[in-house]
Structure formats: C-alpha cells, structure tokens
Design a protein that fits this description.
Chain A is an all-alpha fold and 102 residues long. Chain A has helices spanning 4-24, 28-53, 59-89. Chain A has one domain (4-91): Orthogonal Bundle (Helix Hairpins), CATH 1.10.287. Chain C has two domains: 1-82, Four Helix Bundle (Hemerythrin (Met), subunit A) (Up-down Bundle), CATH 1.20.120; 127-167. Chain C has 167 residues and is an all-alpha fold. Classes of the chains: A mainly alpha (102), B mainly alpha (488), C mainly alpha (167).
C-alpha cells in the first residue's frame, strides 16, 4: 500500500521542477513543456486525493479530466502562435521578443 | 427548475457566437450585419438574465455547482454591458483590418459568456473551466493584430496565463484534498469546523489561488504581462481585458474567499495578503505609469494601480468578517464605476489614435482645439480615474476608502490617498496637454469620429457623470447584490 | 511488494525524465523526456485505479500533445538554429531559488497536514460509467463550457496558423 504522502511529495517535486523550468527557460516551447509538467503535478494531486479521500464521489477524477482538456486546448493554441511568430521572425526565444520590454 | 434555464443568458451568447460563424460561412461577402448579430445576442442574454431576476428565480442548478442569485445577475449584466461596449468600440477597427470579422465577434462573445459563467459558478471545477473559457478567447484576441507585436503579446499573455492557471489549480487541489469537495459551500462548512488544525495548508492553498487570480486582476507581483499585452493587443481588446477579466477575477475572489474560506481564524490572514498586495500594486503601478510615454502602456500601469484599489476593498471585507456587506457593496460599486470610466478612456484613445496614428502621449498636445468633444470626454474620464468629484470614480474611491477606514485599515487608506495624488500627476498631465493652446500642429485637420465609437463613448461618459451626480441608485443595487454574502 | 517496487520505479522515472525536460540542453531531447514523463504519470494513474484517466493521459498527452510539440519543433527548425547554451536564460539561479523554496514549502506542508480521509484501502476500480454519471449530472455546466472552449481554441489555432495572405 502506497501512502498518500508519496503521491503528494512526487507531485510537489514535479510542480517545482515545472516552476523552475518556467522561470529559467528562454524558449517558448520549453516554457510550454514546463507548464505541462506543472499541470500533470496538479492532475496527480487531484486523482490521488480522489482515490484516497473521496471514496463515494469522484470529483477529483472529473477535475483531472477537465484539466487535461484545457491543457490540450492551450498547448494547441500556443504552438499555433509560436508558428506564426516564427514565420515572422525565425526565432522563438521569448526574451528576444523584440520591442516588448518590461 | 430546468438547469438550462439558469444558464440561458450564457447559452444565448454562445448560440449567438455560433450563428455568427455559420452566417459568415454561408454569406461570406455580406458581413455588415455581424456586429449587430453580436449585439442582438447580448441583448437577448441580458433580457434572460433580467427576467430571471425579476421573476425572483434565484436557484442553484447542476446539483449546486451553478447558482443564479442577485450577485451573479448583477455581474452578468455588467459583463454583458462591457461586451456590448467593446463590440461597438471594435466595429470600426475590425472593418479597417478587414479580415476574419466573424471570428473576431464570435470570440468576443465567447469571452463574455465565460465571464458570465464565472459570475455564477459555485464550484471549483466550474470556476476553473469558466475562467479558461473567458481567457482563451482573450489570448487569441490579444494576438489578433497584423503586426508582430500583437502576436507576441498574445503568446506572452497565453504563457503567463497558463502558468497562472497551473498555480491556481494547485491551490484548488490542496483545498479539495483537505475538504474532500470542490463545492464552495461545502468547503466553507469544512473550514468553519477545521480551520485551526490546518492553518498552514490553508494559507498555502489560498496564496496559490491568489497568485492565480492575481494574474487576471493584474496585481503586483503578477503584473508583468500587463504593459506589454496592453501595448501589443488591439486597443478594443485591451479595453476588454482591463475591464472584463479584471472585474470577473474580483467576482470570483469574492465567491471563493468570502463564501468559501471565510473562517474567522483565517480572514485576518487574507486581509493582510490583500492589504499588502493593494499597497504594492498601487505604488508600483503609479510610479511606472508616471514615466510612460506611450498611452497604452500608461493605461496598463494605471490598471495595475486600479487593481490595488479593488484589493483595498477585499482587505476591508476580510477584516470585518461576517459584517462585510458595506465593503462588498463598495467593491461592486467600484466595479461599475471603473467599468464605465475605463471603457470611456479606452474608447477615447481608440478614436484619438485612429486619427493621430500614434500612441504617444505628447501627440495629444492641443487636442482640445481640433477635437473639443473628444478631448472633453477623455478629460472627464481621466478626472473620474483620478477620483475628483463630481464623477463616478470619486464616489467609488470614497466608498472603498470608507470601508477600509471602518475596517481599521487606516494605514492602507493613507497609502491609497498618497497614491491618488501621485496618480493625479499623470492623469491630469494628459488633460493639461490636451487643453494647452497650441498655434500650429499636425492634428488640426478636422476629426472624423466613427458613429459607433461616438455613440458608445457618449454612453460611457454619460454614465460616469450620471453616477457622479446620482450615485444612490447604483449603490443600492450593489448593496442588494452583495447581500448574498451576509447569509452564508 | 511488487506494487511498491513498481511504484518506486515509476516515481523515479517520472522525476528523472521531468528533470530531463527542464535541464536538457537540446529541445528535441526535452520533448522526448516529456513524452516519457507524461507516460509515466499515466502509469501512476493505474496504481490509483483510474484506468480511464490513464488511457486519456496516454492518448492526449502521449499521443496528441507531444506529437504537436515535436511537429512545432520540426517546423521551426529550432535545433538547427539555437546553440544549446541559449536555452536557459541568465535568470536561472533565481528560478532555482524559487523552485527549491516552493519544493520545501509544498513537501513540508503536505507532510505536516493530517489529510482527513487517509484510507487504508483504495476504492475498487473507478469505471467509465461512474465517471460519465457524475460528469453529465453534477458537472453538466462545466461540460458545456468545455465544449465551447475546445471550439474556441480550435478556431484560434486556425486563425494563427493560416498564412496571412490566404485569409
């Protein structure tokens, strides 16, 4: 029997790795991949909670399915924008993102 | 009651969006009627929402996950109004861009429907998915312009938005794991009984949730997307972002925190978080706004500062605890006043930059001579943003400061007043520039303001003035709408 | 016992490949690590008795999303242009600081909290029927919203991906 804490620690590690990736990567596609790691950490959390805490209801599972749907929609859209920007400029490094400054 | 009747306002808008797409597919050459179809859909939706309210049909549907109450009807009508104003403001711009008109209006409508869903959502799943329904069209619209900048601002908004969603979701997951439910009232029951045992987890979860919504509200330190997206996005879209998605985020925060997480032991923690965020947002927003030379970037930072004003209201609510109707109604009144004022500013900027073909603040010099009405409208709106009477913005600020003072947040009121003085510098600088007498300038050719823009600018400025002189009716409506929180 | 060993195998694989995604010096390698990591998470769901979500995970993440990412990488010819050391920006130490702080907080708080329903037995398999039941009753509203959302994202992707001159 795997204790619930194992899942929580695993998802915490995955989430933190994702946050590190988001903050330190320069490339838009790599940032997106890091966001996917974060979202997967969230899904692990939801499903683990659902299995361990919520025996009669399965709300967490439903939530995880919605998270997957939204993540897929977001990544499809993001890659379409990346393609368009690349066509205009041949680079997808976000901090080279031309004139937009802080 | 049929649950679909409860979401009929949103469904009307979504169906309208679908009809626009189908109409355009069948009659691709004939796209004059598209904006009017969008407006008709919004009108139908408002009539549904009002008819629900008039019949007193306050119900929860979908097993409690969606509720129609005075609060949600209030916000639905506000969002529909914002959507309609932005449709008017976009007409001319969309015609000039001249491509993909139907998709533009369909996306604008879907974003509006998403905001309206947010107003009534009472379940974390519904809240999350409605937030995404309102955000994704906005990401697309932010990248709608032809130039490179617009695409970049769309990508930036999308990346930061999805990071914010991930943070929000992690907070929601912790909340769900602790309480075993995603249903806000059930979370409230659980927290009411067990808050003291799990304080550290609850603070962590709520920090993550605040971070997630902080992006949407543009609170510092989650504001880094604001100036770039406001500058890069088409101006009508920036208007929508600055008013719609910000107001929606505050509506949801009211729901989650003051319906769900309002245990006495915790509310002081929220109050502290919101008060500190408010103070930082106002200060940072105003200081950066002072040094901007591009009007859209300046408005971006100004909207960060305004988000700080909203957050004062949230802090005040949290301190007062159960007796917070005053502060909650202050936030709702602020939403309405801010919506009218900021829409007026953005619409005036649309009209002006259309003529000047520049977003440079210095180009506004002597505008009063070539376009007196436009300069007057922008002047009134900026005065309202500063908070000088008689304008809606004055009452909104007074109301919020009053709520904060009653909640013993005197230090925050002082910071806010000092910030208002700071803000007056850059708002009134534009007014002074416009009314400066210049002999000879390029923009002196007669101004042609498109009818649609003139109409909606007139309405919003009128709103600013009417609520400035007669704030009482809207205050009583805001009180009614905020009353739902005092029961829970 | 076998379950425990397998679980640890999956857990280590997920963390290792996830680290590969954020530390790898090649975009294509990162994408391949991502596929493995996401597939590992799908495997984890089987331990949690939700085969349906595991299936969704394999299909959508393992199939659609990663193929999409690889396709985007191919079309932007990233690997050929970018020198590997340019993938991580100068702000990486800050990112590491935030990541480590967040990790310690999350793990610390998770372990310190007494989770209410820490059961000894996992429920029996959650069937698709159960999921559908809840999805179409309590969560009817989010389901409708999700359908609109997917349509919108679809429209948006077309708008962006289409060449400007074709309109």
């Amino acid at each position: 029997m795997i204790p619930l804490e194992n899942y929580l620690v695993l998802s915490g590690i995955l989430f933190s790795l994702g946050v590190y990736g988001v903050l330190s990567r320069r490339n838009a596609v790599l940032v997106l991949m890091s966001v996917e790691l974060m979202l997967n950490a969230v899904s692990i959390n939801f499903i683990a909670f659902s299995a361990y805490l919520d025996v009669t209801q399965i709300t967490g599972v439903i939530f995880a399915i919605f998270v997957v749907a939204v993540a897929a929609a977001e990544i499809g859209l993001a890659l379409a924008i990346v393609l368009r920007i690349f066509r205009n400029r041949s680079s997808i490094n976000i901090d080279e993102a031309a004139e937009l400054k802080w | 009651m049929n649950p679909f009747e409860l979401i009929s306002p949103q469904l009307a808008i979504l169906i309208g969006a679908g009809l626009i797409l189908v109409y355009d597919a069948i009659f691709p050459k004939d796209n004059r009627y598209l904006p009017w179809m969008a407006l008709a859909a919004i009108a139908v939706s408002v009539s549904f929402a009002i008819s629900l309210a008039v019949r007193g049909e306050y119900h929860v549907g979908f097993e409690g996950t969606y509720s129609v109450d005075k609060f949600s009807v209030f916000f639905s009508v506000v969002f529909a109004g914002i959507g309609a104003a932005v449709v008017f403001a976009s007409m001319n711009w969309v015609d000039r861009v001249g491509r993909r008109k139907s998709e533009y209006y369909a996306l604008l409508l879907t974003a509006t429907a998403g905001l309206m869903f947010l107003a009534g959502a009472r379940d974390l799943i519904t809240i999350f998915i409605a937030l995404e329904l309102s955000s994704i069209p906005q990401y697309i619209l932010a990248g709608w312009g032809k130039d490179e900048r617009s695409g970049e601002s769309g990508l930036k908004y999308l990346l930061l938005g999805s990071i914010a969603s991930a943070l929000l979701l992690f907070g929601m997951a912790l909340l769900y794991g602790l309480s075993g439910s995603t249903f806000v009232p059930e979370i409230a029951t659980f927290i009411g009984e067990n808050a003291s045992d799990n304080r550290s987890l609850l603070i962590l979860a709520s920090t993550l949730i605040i971070a997630g919504f902080g992006f949407k509200m543009a609170l510092v330190p989650f504001q880094m997307w604001v100036p770039d997206v406001y500058e890069g996005a088409p101006t009508p879209v920036a208007a929508f972002l600055s008013v719609g998605s910000k107001a929606a985020a505050f509506a949801v925060v009211l729901r989650i925190f003051f319906e769900g997480l309002n245990a006495e032991i915790l509310s002081n923690d929220w109050a502290m978080i919101f008060a500190v965020l408010a103070a930082i947002s106002m200060t940072v927003g105003n200081i950066f706004a002072l040094v901007q030379s591009n009007i859209k970037r300046m408005l971006g930072y100004s909207s960060v500062a305004q988000a700080g004003n909203f957050a004062i209201g949230l802090a005040a609510i949290a301190v007062v605890g159960q007796e917070f109707t005053l502060a909650a109604s202050a936030v709702l009144f602020f939403v309405v006043a801010y919506a009218f004022t900021n829409l007026a500013v953005f619409i005036a900027v649309i009209a002006i930059s259309r003529h000047l073909e520049s977003d440079d603040i210095n180009a506004y010099e002597g505008l009063a001579k070539s376009a007196p009405l436009l300069a007057l409208a922008l002047g009134i709106a900026l005065i309202s943003l500063t908070g000088i009477p008689p304008s809606a913005g004055f009452w909104a600020k007074l109301y919020i400061f009053n709520a904060a003072a009653q909640a013993d947040l005197a230090w925050l009121v002082i910071v806010a007043v000092l910030n208002s003085v700071l803000a007056a510098f850059y708002y009134l600088r534009i007014v002074r520039l416009m009314f400066r007498n210049v002999e000879d300038q390029i923009g002196s050719a007669p101004f042609a303001i498109p009818k649609s823009i003139g109409f909606v600018l007139g309405i919003t400025v009128l709103g600013v003035l009417v609520f400035g002189f007669f704030p009482t009716p809207i205050i009583s409506v805001a009180r009614e709408a905020a009353a739902i929180f005092s029961i829970g | 016992m076998i379950t425990e060993i397998l679980w640890w195998f999956f857990a280590i694989a997920i963390v290792g490949t996830a680290a590969g995604v954020v530390f790898s010096r090649s975009v294509v390698h990162a994408a391949i690590f991502l596929i493995l990591s996401l597939a590992g998470v799908g495997g984890l769901y089987i331990f949690l008795t939700v085969e349906f979500v595991a299936l969704v995970q394999f299909l959508i993440y393992g199939g659609a999303v990663t193929v999409l990412i690889l396709l985007a990488l191919m079309m932007t010819r990233l690997d050929a242009t970018g020198a590997p050391d340019k993938l991580t920006g100068p702000q990486a130490p800050f990112g590491a600081l935030v990541g480590i702080t967040l990790l310690l907080t999350l793990v610390g708080v998770s372990l310190a909290t007494a989770w209410p329903g820490d059961v000894d037995d996992l429920p029996t398999n959650i069937t698709i029927e159960q999921i559908g039941d809840v999805m179409f009753t309590s969560y009817g509203a989010p389901f409708i919203i999700a359908s609109a959302l997917l349509l919108v994202a679809f429209i948006g992707a077309i708008v962006f991906a289409k060449q400007e001159d074709e309109v």
